[in-house]
Amino acid sequence: MEIRKLNSNEPLPLHLLLLADPSQKLVEGYIKRGQCFIAEVNDQVIGVYVLLPTRPETVEIVNLAVDENYQGKGIGKQLVFHAIQNATLHGYKTIEIGTGNSSVGQLALYQKCGFRITGIDRDFFIRHYTEEIFENGIQCRDMIRLSQDL
Fold first, then answer.
1. Residue range 2-149 in CATH 3.40.640.10
2. Backbone conformation region of residue 72, classed left if phi is above 0, alpha if psi is from -120 to 50, else beta
3. Residue 108 burial by CB count (10 A; 0-12/13-18/19+): exposed, middle or buried?
4. What value does the mean pLDDT of the chain take?
5. How far is the C-alpha of 57 from the C-alpha of 63, rounded, in Å?
6. Contact 122, 103 (CB under 8 A)
7. Residues 6+ apart with CB under 8 A from 69
8. What is the C-alpha separation between 110 and 98, in angstroms, rounded?
9. Of the candidates 37, 44, 33, 32, which has an alpha carbon nearest to the alpha carbon of residue 70?
10. How far, in Å, CA of 22 to CA of 38, rounded?
11. Considering only CA atoms, which of 24, 70, 26 is closest in space to residue 48?
12. Over the stretch 97-109, which tens digit does the pLDDT of each residue have?
């Protein structure tokens, strides 16, 4: 597997980005301001993440997704560590990520990768998404914010 920056002339892996964020409008908004990285196996895009500078010395992973056929194989963890390494290489001091209160697996993954919970943005998904989101039988309402010092 190779992880690399998506070239500007390559098609955006929108199908993967929408796995992590169901709002195409929001995805298209932050993809223009961030950098998109893809994971490939045999020229097939199987994973993606987007890094977005948010404040001086701070960058956020605003989207991270793995093709459903490749989930559970450690690819998400490799993408997170690649993002951390990339942020460190570019001189950032803090990396952040957010996930829904219902995203139990993602919340566990990010903590295993060294992120710590820093806050909760109550009703984030109610305010920013027109349709209700459910995962693991739980309504996704709140954004759990996590960060890691680099």
1. no
2. left
3. exposed
4. 95
5. 19
6. no
7. 46
8. 9
9. 44
10. 18
11. 70
12. 999 999 999 999 9
